[in-house]
């Protein structure tokens, strides 16, 4: 089975859309590991929450929870025309690196939370 990481670009079996992994781990609804995916388009089923537990955040109908065996990684290799659109590759790669680092830093700790009677409870 493939190994997955936060921010991997993926496709989901049965869906004709790409997304990004935002959550990897156990959930309150299963003892097995699940992946939380944020779709590029609103073709999902949730906003990163399920039954009151929030495991990741995304727009309404942009999120879905799936089993790892339902997911395939996507490799993106830009065409020559796409690559030529980047005029200052050094500046662009530094921007991507800093953006990626801030995104990865925000996902360092994976946990779910839910709100009950105006109290927020965190599960780590």
At a glance:
By secondary structure, the protein is α+β, with helices and mostly antiparallel strands. 19% of the residues lie in helices and 36% in strands.
Describe the protein in words.
With 124 residues, the chain is α+β, with helices and mostly antiparallel strands. A hairpin with a 5-residue loop joins strand 1 (9-12) and strand 2 (18-27). It has a domain at 1-75: SH3 type barrels (Roll). Helices cover 19% and strands 36% of the residues. The strands form two sheets. It has a five-stranded antiparallel sheet with strand order 6-3-2-1-7, with no helix packed on it. Strands 4-5-8-9 form a four-stranded antiparallel sheet, with no helix packed on it.
Features:
single chain; 124 residues; alpha+beta; SH3 type barrels; 5-stranded antiparallel β-sheet; 4-stranded antiparallel β-sheet; globular; disordered C terminus; CEP350/CC187; CAP-Gly_dom_sf
Molecular shape:
globular
Structural class: alpha+beta
Which strand order do you get reading across the main beta sheet? 6-3-2-1-7
* Unreliable spans: 86-111, 114-124
Q: What integer is the average pLDDT?
A: 74
**From the coordinates shown, what is the CATH architecture of the domain at 1-75?**
Roll
The arrangement of helices and strands along the chain is: EEEEEEEHHEE
Annotation field: number of helices: 2
The percent range for helix content is: 10-25%
